[in-house]
Amino acid sequence: MALAQRLLEIPAVRRSDRLRTFITAAWLGWQIETNWADPLIFIIYFVARPIAALAILVVMYSIIAADSIGTPFFAYVYLGSALYLLTSQIIVGISWVVIEDREQYRVAKQLHTAPIDGYTYLVGRGMARFIVGILSVLVTVPFGVLIFGIPVTLVGIDFPLLIVSTVFGLAAMAALGVMIGAFTMQVSRQVWFIGDSISGALYLLTGAVFPIDLLPDFLRPLSYILPSTYWLELARRALLGDNAIQFQAISALDSGTMLGILIGMSLLLMLASVFVYRWSLRRAKERGVLDMETNF
User: Fold this and answer.
1) Rounded CA separation 168/149 (Å)
2) Secondary structure letter of residue 70 according to DSSP
3) How many alpha carbons fall within 13 Å on the CB side of residue 119?
4) Which residues fall within 8 angstroms of residue 276, CB to CB, at 6 or more apart?
5) Which of 12, 143, 229, 238 has the maximal Cβ count within 10 Å?
6) What are the phi and psi torsion angles at 219 (to 5°)?
7) pLDDT range class, residue 296, cuts 50, 70, 90
8) Cβ–Cβ under 8 Å, residues 242 and 157
9) Which DSSP letter does residue 294 get?
């Protein structure tokens, strides 16, 4: 709380209700996410968890593909899976806040009668998952470089492309998470699977583990309208440089064009998420399900 308290005492923050809500919600989300654990124990946990998840993928790749882990395609699969850890954390983390506050902590009524902005609160709570996701990526990518020889070097990384694409890509995912959470407010039963289901679908449709060229023709158009497709491709290009493998379905687009598409999608999703949240909140209040506890 010491860091959060210092941030809250900044004059600009003290004058802004939204900033105070965001920082407080982020601190609360971090405490819940870490379960108030000892820092050393939590560090061991968050290092071991993503590495174990990707180790399963490496074993599956080695057995099914019967290919060397030193190939460009393995780097494509590994980095896609490592980066997608961040995407799934944000989508599921923000959307799960609604269920957690309503069902587990039973504070939905208090939250929505308190003088805070609910949209800002949702994004702030999701910030904890974002931090965990960032830490997971910072662990798994160097691990892949050291252990599996993923051809990523500091001098070869296009940092401007990586940073800009990541900012807008994750902003789009946060907006999507808010919209899923907003929809969750209108549903009173069996909503726990919505965020996980959408995250799993995006894992298959955005080229995280295999190129979208391999998707059936009727599914491929869905990949082109998903911002995470462009973010994952841009992030791979920024990290791998000339070592990035190119596939026909998306290689025709240069990085500048893809970045423009990603920025446009992100801005549209962020704007849409505000309207969807307000509409869903009003509908949930009208139907009397905003604070309905189902004991799922």
Assistant:
1) 29
2) T
3) 17
4) 178, 179, 182, 183
5) 229
6) -95, -25
7) low
8) no
9) -
Span 185-218, pLDDT tens digits: 887 666 667 777 888 888 888 888 888 888 888 8
Q: Look up tokens 């998707």; give the residue.
A: 215
Q: For residue 248, with 0-12 CB atoms within 10 Å meaning exposed, 13-18 middle and 19 or more buried, which class applies? A: exposed
**Number of separate helices (H) and strands (E) present in the chain:** 13, 0
Who's near 291: CB < 8 A, 6+ residues apart? 102, 106, 108, 109, 112
Model confidence at 67, pLDDT cuts 50, 70, 90, reads low
Residue 158 tokens read as: 């296009």
Tokens encoding 145: 């470089």
Which pair of tokens denotes residue 109?
A: 């009524």
Measure the CA–CA gap between 99 and 192, rounded to whole angstroms.
Answer: 7
